[in-house]
Design goal:
The complex is a heterodimer of chains A (111) and B (112). By secondary structure, chain A is mainly beta. Chain A has no helices and 11 strands. In chain B, strands 2, 4, 5, 6, 9, 10 and 11 form a 7-stranded mixed β-sheet that branches. Classes of the chains: A mainly beta (111), B mainly beta (112).
Chain lengths: 111, 112
């Protein structure tokens, strides 16, 4: 049972434009959300997180938005750069150890 | 810190053989996780250790899989006997607190 869903397997965006990645979750106990980035042949690396007490968290070019009522979060990357081409995983936890991951979205930034 | 270190990076083995994957977590981290990534199931948690003690192994697929953490700086994941359907990328991750986990580069296992 997939509790975290990333319905877009891929996204192509032009360099300099905004990338928007979406994630939906079903477990209302989730209260901490993370985004990981993964390059080929490497492990996922932590990118940004947000607690359920917030609706927005920003770190440089990366912003995560959380809509608790809709059980939806999104990651905005602006401006997109070629080095952002990677697989992005959404993850969620109920403040315990267990992270539930989405299937990932492959982002390709075109020059 | 060098990060989470996994070995080997690649493993090709014949069906029925024993496979041992190794992990050295980040020094000071008290939680260690083993994940498996497949096309069908994505990233799934196999087992979680806290302070070297297995807390949750409900993700371990079968008795053929076992994991140990004899000390704070070393863990193994063993598959015996291995089967072709075990082919996947296995990740080890560690963390200090609830939240961000730091992943190793993974071991790509191919069972033929």
């Amino acid at each position: 049972d997939q509790q975290v869903k990333q319905n877009s397997p891929s996204l192509s965006v032009q360099e300099g434009r905004i990338s928007i990645l979406n994630c939906d979750y079903t477990n209302s106990m989730f209260d901490y959300f993370l985004w990981y980035k993964k390059y080929p042949a490497e492990g996922p690396t932590f990118l940004i997180s947000i607690s359920s007490i917030k609706d927005k968290n920003e770190d440089g070019r990366f912003t995560v938005f959380l809509n608790k009522s809709a059980k939806h979060l999104s990651l905005h990357i602006v401006p997109s750069q070629p080095g952002d081409s990677a697989v992005y995983f959404c993850a969620a936890s109920a403040r315990d150890y267990k992270l539930s991951f989405g299937a990932g979205t492959t982002v390709t930034v075109r020059a | 810190d060098a990060g989470v270190i996994q070995s080997p990076r690649h493993e090709v083995t014949e069906m029925g053989q024993e496979v041992t994957l190794r992990c050295k977590p980040i020094s000071g981290h008290n939680s260690l996780f083993w994940y498996r990534q497949t096309m069908m199931r994505g990233l799934e948690l196999l087992i979680y250790f806290n302070n070297n003690v297995p807390i949750d192994d409900s993700g371990m697929p079968e008795d053929r899989f076992s994991a140990k953490m004899p000390n704070a700086s070393f863990s193994t994941l063993k598959i015996q006997p291995s089967e072709p359907r075990d082919s996947a990328v296995y990740f080890c991750a560690s963390s200090y607190s609830v939240g961000e986990a730091f992943f190793g580069q993974g071991t790509r296992l191919t069972v033929v």
